[in-house]
């Protein structure tokens, strides 16, 4: 019996390694289509065990019609391996809270840090939104952005309204390793004048259930089911 050559052995080992990857696809090298709002490819499937704990994606979003008062917006998708117990959102209005938000994250991608650093809080706010997902082949997609006008003429109580949803990014011919993941999207809203200080976020979670979150001008964060954050939250409203 002829012994296999060294090249044959190495080739067989390489094939075995390729088949052992977490997500398998018939179309190699293809990414997810994102959320359809100009966000580009998704975060990938996150099945490389040597990958950083945080993954991220950034994009300029121009596909949705802008409401009056909003000059533009950008989003940055991210993931982390920590399990999310409940959807939540924050309204970040100043550089210091933004830096604190970054500091709380492990292995923050450079692109995410740059996205925060590039924010002009004179005209913009940051809104980190996140929820749980059953595996890394999901993302939190921004479905719409709007401004709800207040009854008074001055518009001091206008509200930034965001609609988001947890969506699967894997193609039909892909399989993804089941691993609880937190998926998030950092939204930067830039206003034509002074930034709004009221926020309303609706999150459709992994089960299709809708979770409403409201953040008022005297609070900075809230979890699903809360109308406002706890009274202990502190932030300065408006732009600096």
Can you walk through the features of this model?
Residues 46-65 have a biased composition (Acidic residues). By secondary structure, the protein is mostly beta strands. The protein has a domain at 59-223. The protein is 13% helix and 32% strand. The protein has three helices and ten strands, in the order αβββααβββββββ. A six-stranded antiparallel sheet has the order 1-2-7-4-3-10, with helices on one face. Strands 5-6-8-9 form a four-stranded mixed sheet, with no helix packed on it.
SSE map:
Elements: H1 6-19, E1 55-60, E2 70-80, E3 88-90, H2 95-103, H3 110-117, E4 124-133, E5 138-148, E6 159-168, E7 181-191, E8 198-204, E9 210-215, E10 221-223
Parallel strand pairs: 6-8
Antiparallel strand pairs: 1-2, 2-7, 3-4, 3-10, 4-7, 5-6, 8-9
Helix pairs in contact: 2-3
Region (Disordered): 23-112, 200-240
Biased composition (Acidic residues): 46-65
Biased composition (Gly residues): 31-45
Radius of gyration: 21 Å
Could you say which overall geometry the principal axes of the C-alpha atoms support? globular
State the total count of DSSP E strands.
10
Which whole number gives the mean pLDDT? 75
Strand order of the largest sheet: 1-2-7-4-3-10
Low-confidence stretches: 6-52, 57-61, 227-240
Tally of separate helices: 3
Structural category:
mainly beta
What pattern of helices and strands is seen along the backbone?
Answer: HEEEHHEEEEEEE
Oligomer: single chain
Distance between the termini: 80 Å
Strand residue content: 25-35%
Largest sheet: 6 strands, antiparallel
Share of helical residues: 10-25%
């Amino acid at each position: 019996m002829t012994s296999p050559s060294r090249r044959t052995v190495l080739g067989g080992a390489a094939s075995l390694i390729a088949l052992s990857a977490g997500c398998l696809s018939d179309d190699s090298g293809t990414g997810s289509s994102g959320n359809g709002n100009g966000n580009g490819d998704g975060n990938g499937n996150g099945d490389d065990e040597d990958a950083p704990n945080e993954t991220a994606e950034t994009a300029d979003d121009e596909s949705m019609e802008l409401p009056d008062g909003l000059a533009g917006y950008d989003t940055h998708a991210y993931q982390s391996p920590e399990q999310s117990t409940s959807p939540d959102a924050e309204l970040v209005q100043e550089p210091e809270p933004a830096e604190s938000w970054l500091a709380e994250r492990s292995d923050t991608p450079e692109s995410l840090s740059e996205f925060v650093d590039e924010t002009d809080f004179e005209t913009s706010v940051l809104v980190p939104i996140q929820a749980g997902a059953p595996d890394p082949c999901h993302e939190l997609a921004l479905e719409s952005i709007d401004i709800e006008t207040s009854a008074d003429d001055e518009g001091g109580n206008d509200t930034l309204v965001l609609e988001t949803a947890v969506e699967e990014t894997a193609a039909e011919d892909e399989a993804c390793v089941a691993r609880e993941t937190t998926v998030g999207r950092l939204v930067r809203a830039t206003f034509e004048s002074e930034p709004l200080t009221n926020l309303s976020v609706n999150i459709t979670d992994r089960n299709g259930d809708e979770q409403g979150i409201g953040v008022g001008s005297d609070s900075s964060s809230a979890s699903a089911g809360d109308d406002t954050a706890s009274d202990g939250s502190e932030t300065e409203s408006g732009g600096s």
